[in-house]
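Hey, weird one. I pasted the Neuroglobin sequence into the form twice and got a warning about non-standard characters only the second time. First submission, copied straight from the form history:
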Amino acid sequence: MESGMLLSGRQRALIRESWQRVSGSPVQHGLVLFTRLFDLDPDLLPLFQYNCKQFASPQECLSAPEFLDHIRKVMLVIDAAVSHLDNLSCLEEYLCNLGKKHQAVGVKVESFSTVGESLLYMLEKCLGAAFNPDMREAWSKLYGAVVKAMQRGWETLPEGD
């Protein structure tokens, strides 16, 4: 993961500025992200189980305290990426391990494109007209770098696991 991963100074500034507006209400904005995710791909719902409990609906999942904790964690990962825009390589090992954890619970690499769409949707809904094409491109690049690092977690698992 290259430092700054080809994000220009302007793109890093756009990401920081937009995240500052969103990060004050992580659960509220995370709910927008995951509501959109389940709208786009309802088949992801069974991946979220706590104490062997399967959720009957996205609404039930989105209101579960355990899932709200998951939302907080997701938003913290985004926050870490934004905080380390100038040196994302320091998150490489963490993101690789996060990828392994996601694979272990049955997440498919392909699902991350839907998560990316949901992230951009959340930013657009929360920022309104301020979420312009330049900001979208900057966030897409950042998200792409995070996913690439997480995918390395899939690649490092031995065959048969």
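That's the output from the first submission. The warning seems to come from a hidden character in my clipboard, not from the data itself. DSSP finds seven helices and two strands in the chain.
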